[in-house]
Structures are given as structure tokens and as C-alpha cells.
Predict the structure.
Amino acid sequence: MKIIKKDGTLEEYSEQKIINACSKAANRAMFNLTEKDYAAICSAVWDKLVENDLEDTEIYEMHNIVESVLEEHYPLVAKMYKEYRNYKKDFVHMMDKVYEQSQAIRYIGDKSNANTDSALVATKRSLIFNALNSELYKKFFLTHDEKQAAKDGYIYIHDRSARLDTWNCCLAKVGDIMKDGFEMGNIWYNEPNSLDTAFDVMGDIILSTAAQQYGGFTVPEVDKILEPYAEKSFEKYRKEYFDIIGEFERSNSSFDHLFTNAGDYANKKVYREFEQGWQGIEYKLNSVGSSRGDYAFITMTLGLATGRFGKMASISFLKVHSEGQGKRGFKRPVLFPKIVFLYDKELHGDGSEKYPNGDVFNAGIECSSKTMYPDWLSLTGKGYIPEMYKRYGKVVSPMGCRAFLSPWYERGGMEPIDENDIPVFEGRFNCGVVSLHLPMILAKARRESRDFYEILDYYLELTRGLHKRTMDYLGEMRASTNPVMFCEGGVYGGHLNPDDKIKSILPPMTISYGITALNELQELYNGKSIREDGEFALEVMQYIDSYVNRIKKEDNILYAVYGTPAETLCGLQVEQFRKIFGVVENVSDKSYVSNSFHCHVSEDISPIEKQDKEERFWNLFNGGKIQYCRYSLNYNTEAIKTLVLRAMDKGLYEGVNLALCYCEDCGHQQIEMDICPKCGSKMITKIDRMNGYLGFTRVHGDTRYNPAKNEEIKDRISM
């Protein structure tokens, strides 16, 4: 018997094609068909063909027969089979939707990410591709239940356009890549022999590799990375000094005197190289867009180096950043890299002279008071991150603005095999985030008169299945997709051959359950904010934390709980809630929801109370968190220092929030203004904290923030 194809050609009847089609439908329905089931399906199809006395059979009739057999015995699979049959019609609809989105991007722009400038041609191209990729992901990767949950708003799958192509945020082993040389773009880079070359090479690595992923790219302990190259430059300049003074002075001066002068000369030269290097890095990262359409989201951590050139690296960077970039009289801080100060109480203390790096600490406070960066990460307070540092001497730097890695031990994996097993953090990454919308889950439970935790379990398990398939899918990627990271040692275990699959290096990587609108969950529960109560919100987070700790051992996947920053999502979740449950006071009556576990931005509370209220949730979000307060202190460095030190004692990751405003016409700057008090201009550039990172609320009269986020900024009192 032959099958008559749509184009009229004939093809041999094949039971394997029936099995393949039914297998795809079963996978989409999350239904397991056994070999016995497949045999029964094929037999039933053949019986119907014989019964209908069909010889050469039209393909559409063949589909009808298979569908009718499935409907008799496997109705859910039949439904998926029918959907798959109609994919061409769906595809036309999908492409029409993508076309509409592309037209909007071309002529209106896009404000879903404050880190992109959608006026640029390269960004428009990337956004249009992302729109297509996002629709393809929804159509061909998600199950029916996952798609429905995402459409309704119970879950939000972040970065749909990229999550099957690459990974999310990472701690790149930039220092290891540079050491002894490496290959990038089919060109061999020798290890730098001077500081200025090290800056150039580091910049090349960052721009190339950060473009091959989405999310934040962190260069951990950059001061220690650059320290040995500064030493090389110092020796070069010291030699240069002796070459300059010539034979006459060399024979008529004491060696000690010459050595002192040579040291001073070389030190000044090295410091100048640091200044120029940091300025070059800031220029690159804020003007050269990556191939993915945005500016590379780079974070650099510093503060622990105690050698003269390590300290010089930190202090010079903080000084360059605090002075800003631009024309004389019109300088303002740049947005990238985000700087994170690694605080060690024994090393930094309160900044007094008795502490080895007190001067580095003071430079950081001065910089924060002017630019909001650096953010401050406690390594010696309370909690998980300080525990890793105090016990093992290991720094858990944030990936991007707020993501953190769970421990992975060199020999034992998730748990140390013995007391000598050591955790590793550098070179690891996150494979994506799916966020739960907890207020919607509570509202659904109440509407259906069901237990909240029963509904929550359903969405936790749904996300679990999605995460497992994502990890399996990513494992099939080849190392050649990002050779610097996978072949040249940029990630942990990253010395693969280009044709190797990356599955072998995925176990140490995390994948996250995101949490938004915890404040609105508490409001929906009993009409109180987490400032006023918070007990139910805390109970829910303890439940989720316990669940995640259990399943990561069952699945051998490093799941983590992540405090979602909710940029565009803060507005989308309100729209989704209203569509199903309407407008509820203090839950969906505003145009945005609170991000993560933070108090509502409109709460009129002091930074001290905000730290205390949010501290309760701190150790339940070890996959990603930041605590920030609005420091309405008018550049009062002593007050800022006091609040930062308080946060460091608590073990927090603290952001200093000041609204920074700059007049484009006369250069005047102050903390808050809409009209310049000096010249009356409305051409104000304003920098605010988006969530964990900074962005332009206004630049040349325009904003890169979406409407919901701008509404949130208007309401900010405590944030």
C-alpha cells in the first residue's frame, strides 16, 4: 500500500512514521507510551485501513485514521496530535504576530530592557529575531500545560528568545583565560606582558564572550586578575627609568637613591596605566553594543587584594568611576560595569588606618556617595555567602546584578565528601529562570476552594519538568558555540574539544525558581504588607525552599530560589492578574507589582527598618538577592558609611540608592531635579536604580524604562 502525499507523489506505507508522530504528540502531552502501546496503535490503524478497503491512501485520510485510533484509547495524546497537524495554520498566525511585533520595534521602539537602545539598527535586528525565537520556543518546546500556565500568568519563563541557544549569567574565569595565552576567533592571543595590554585583552574577552550568552557576565576579583600585569609594567618602567638617565648619572649617583627615584617613576606610570585602562573599559562597555543587541551587562568585583598593585587597581577604578566620563564640566557616571565591593571586616573595618584596606573601603564609600556604585557584598557577616568565605576563603560573587551560585564541591558535588572538600564558584553559570506569580496562585486556590499549597505544588512541579527538559536540551550544545568559555577554560571544566557536547560540564550549574510580588501575596492573604506582617509570605518561602532542597537531590540538578527583579514583568503580572481576578486593592490596583521579597517602594520607612524587614527572607533566596534602600542623605558620606556597615554586619548585599540628575545644557548636578535650578533647562539626564543595576530614567529627554517601571519610580519613598 502507498500513501498519497499532498503534492501527489507516492510513498511506501511505514509504521515507523506513525510511531514517530505519536511519540511527538505524547511528549507534548507529557504522556508515556510504551512499546506495547505503539504496537496496539499500529495494529488498530492497519485494521481500519483494511476495514475501509483502502489501497493507496491520501495523507489527510491517514491522519484522520491515526487521530481516531488515538481518540479511542489516548484522548490527551490525540489532542496533541491534532494540534501538531494544524501547526501550519498556527505557524501563519505566529508569523503574523511576529510581523506586528517587528513593525512596532521598527517604528516605535522597545523598552522591555533598560539595557538596550532600541533606536539602533543592530538592536532592532536583535529584537526582531528575539520576537521570532520567543514564538518558536512557545510553539515547539513548551507542553500544552506549560504554555497555558505562562499565558495565564501563573509562571513566567524568562528570556524565551535565548534560553535554548545558550546560558544565562556566569562567573567567568577571565584571569585563567588570559594566563599562558588562548585562542579566540581563530587568532592566538599571547598572555599580556604589560598592564595596558591586559586591559585591552580583558576588554576583547568580555565583549566576545558576553555576547554569546544572555544575562550578566561577572569578572570576579578583577583587582587580583590585573595585579600580576601591573607588576610586569612596573618592572618595564623601572628599567625604562635607568635607560633614560644614562651612563653619566648612573656613575655619579648612589644606587639606593636611583632605586627610589626609579620606583616613584614606575609607580606613577603604572597608576596612569590603571587610569587609562579603566577609562577604556568604561568607554567600551557603554558604547559598543554586543551582537545580541544590548550593551554587555558586565559586573566586576573588587576590594580583597592587599598587594600594592591590587589596591592600586581598586582605588584607581573607584576614582575613575566616581569622576565619570564626558566633556569637562559635563561628566557623569557610566552604567557599566556594575561594581561590587567585597567587604571583609578584618580587612576593611570602618575605613580607619589600622585596617590594611581601610583606604580601599573609603574610596568605595566616596564612590557610592557620588554614583551609587559600588554595591556592597558582606563576606564576614551572617548567612550563606559569609559562611563560604569564612570557612573556605571562597568568594561567591554575584552573577550580573543579583544571581548567586549554590555551593558545588570539587569532589562531592552538591555536598562535601569530607571536611577537606572545597567548593568552587568561578567558572560556573545559571541555565535560566522561571518565575512563579504567587498572588495569582493564591487567588486561584481561593476561587476554586482548594488548598493553596496544592495549587503551588502543581506549578512547582510544572516548572520542575520544564527545567529538566531545558538542562537536557542545553546538554546537546557543542563546545564550539562558545569556544573561549568551553574550550579555553572560561567555565569550570571548559577544556572540551569543539565537537564535544557540553552535557558533561552542566552538573555544577544552577537553574532557578524565581519569586516576584511577595509583598502582594501577603496583601492578598490578609490585607497587610510584608512591612506590617509578612508571616504568611515567610511561611510560603520556607515551603518553597524546602521543596527545592528536596528535588535537587532527587534530580541531581542544582535548583535555586531567585528573587526576581521584575523589570517589564512588574507591569505584565498586573495585567495578567486583572484579566482573571480583576482589580484588588494593594494587589493589582497599581500598574506594577513589587519585585522579589522587597517592601513596597511607597512604604515610608527608614533604611534601617527596611534592612530589618527584608532580612527575614534573606537566606531563603540564596539563588539571587539584593537589598537596597533609598539613601536620601545628600552625599553625606558618613551617614552612608554607617548604613553600609550595618548592612555588612547583617551579611547583606547592599545597594545605595540615590537619584542622580545632570543638566545637559549647563552641567549642573544634584540628587533630584526635573528642571535645572541653575539654567532652567528641562534637558535632564537622570540615573536611577532599575532593580539590581542602574539605568537611564531620562536621557536627552527620553527614558529607557517601560511605563510600569516609571510609575514605580514615581512612587518610590523607601527605594
About this structure: The two ends are 72 Å apart (CA to CA).
